[in-house]
Design goal:
single chain; alpha+beta; 3 helices; globular
Length: 93
C-alpha cells in the first residue's frame, strides 16, 4: 500500500487537547478516509478518534505525521486540509 504523509507542526496554542482534538477528529471523520496521526515514535492512531488524538499528548510546536492510503479517492486533498487545520491555532478561530 502506498501512503501519502504530511509532517505538521501543531499550531494550536493549547496543543491537541479537548476542543482542538474534538474539532480535528470531527474534520477527519467527515472526510470518510482511513487517516492516521502519529507523534514521534508512538503508535499511529485513527485521526477520527477524539480519544486517540488526545492520547498523543501533542503540544503547541510538536510535530505529528498524518498518513492516508494514496489510492483512496481525494486522499491528497483530504490530508492537505487536515494538515492546514492542525497548523492553524484552532482555539483562536
Amino acid at each position: 500500500m502506498t501512503t501519502i504523509t504530511r509532517t505538521v507542526t501543531v499550531g494550536s496554542s493549547h496543543g491537541l487537547h479537548a476542543r482542538p482534538a474534538k474539532l480535528f477528529a470531527q474534520a477527519a471523520k467527515e472526510l470518510g478516509l482511513p487517516i492516521t496521526i502519529q507523534k514521534g515514535e508512538g503508535k499511529p492512531t485513527n485521526a477520527a478518534s477524539i480519544l486517540g488524538v488526545i492520547s498523543l499528548g501533542a503540544e503547541h510546536g510538536d510535530e505529528v505525521v498524518l498518513s492516508v492510503d494514496a489510492e483512496a479517492p481525494g486522499a491528497a486533498e483530504a490530508i492537505d486540509s487536515l494538515a492546514a487545520l492542525l497548523a492553524s491555532d484552532i482555539d483562536a478561530e
